[in-house]
Amino acid sequence: MKHLVSISDLDRKEIETILQLASGAHKQLPNKILCSLFFEPSTRTRLSFEAAALRLGMNTLGTENALLNSSSSKGESLEDTIRVVSSYADVIVLRHPHNEAALIASQVSTVPIINAGCGSDEHPTQTLTDLFTVNQRMGRLENLNIGFVGDIKNSRTVHSLAKASQQFNNVQCYYFPVIGLEDPTLVGEHKNVTSLSLHIGDLDVLYVTREQKERGSDSSSYFILTEALIAQMKTTAIILHPLPRNAELPTYVDKNMRAAYFDQAANAVAVRQGIVQYLLNPR
Ligand code: NCD
To answer: Residue 246 in contact with residue 232, Cβ under 8 Å?
Structure first.
């Protein structure tokens, strides 16, 4: 049985297999049940997982506000909840405020656990959606300069994509954190957000993130993607954002040909179909 706790649980070949499954015809999984257990808010992740399951002919159950609506509110441990739910479903999609939650769940679950974002640590299924979108737009997952801007410290989407990018040849990561929101543990070149204008012309992918206020980020002057910055980008470059956005990604960017974030959100269903198919039938 395979879990998807960290993007590092997948090697490059497995990532490519899931991306291929996402773009191919989907094998149906009738009579299988996907349970989504969300202890934190979500729009895209939960609904695209449930849509993916339904499109695979699966059934779904779950709770979208598990902190309040599951027995967690009566003091039940995550381990006990997972032990029980894994006897009801064939795969569990878990979002939780604690970094270790998916790992802990995987240690007691009798069915695959999918990390749908735990704390500030990782969000591996968003990464697969990001990679699918990069490949769709750029035609490659190699020879890329990726610039991450904003809340590098608390954005789990950045942490997972940065790890995954190390598996592909000649992918260079640049980090442009807002002051106070750095994460020096990430592999790549760390720069100040004010230097983005010096480097933006070299980027193939600009990955913009929201300030993660629910994790304590509190910047007095957060980043905003201006039209002047976009004008310096390569015409072939793309702009990604995991969404939801705040002021960092103004709506005037939406009409720019480089904007790929609504494709990114739409691709989530096919990619999550690929993920569920892969975990329920690993090759
Ligand atoms: C992200 C998350 O939950 O980490 N959202 C998502 O799943 N698309 C990004 C965010 O909330 O800023």
So the answer is: no
CA dihedral for 19, 25, 30, 35, sign (positive or negative):
positive
pTM over 0.85: yes
* d(C-alpha 122, C-alpha 116), whole Å: 8
Which residues lie across from 80 on neighbouring strands? none
**146's tokens:** 């990726």
Q: Kindly report the protein residue whose alpha carbon is nearest to atom 6 of ligand 1.
A: 242
Cα-to-centroid distance, 283 and ligand 1 (Å): 29
Paired with 113 in beta bridges are 92
145-200 per-position pLDDT tens digit: 999 999 999 999 999 999 999 999 999 999 999 999 999 999 999 999 999 999 99
Instruction: Please choose from 38, 40, 50, 157 the residue to mutate so as to test ligand 1's pocket, defined by most ligand atoms within 8 A of CB.
Output: 157
Q: Let me know: does 237 contact 230? Beta carbons within 8 Å.
A: no
pLDDT in tens, 98-149: 999 999 999 999 999 999 999 999 999 999 999 999 999 999 999 999 999 9
Q: Which two tokens stand for residue 6?
A: 């960290």
The protein residue with its alpha carbon nearest to ligand 1, atom 8, reads 242
126 CB neighbour count, 10 Å cutoff: 26
Distance of alpha carbon 175 from alpha carbon 24, whole angstroms: 34
Which atom from ligand 1 is nearest to the alpha carbon of 45? 7
**Span from the CA of 213 to the centroid of ligand 1 (angstroms):** 12
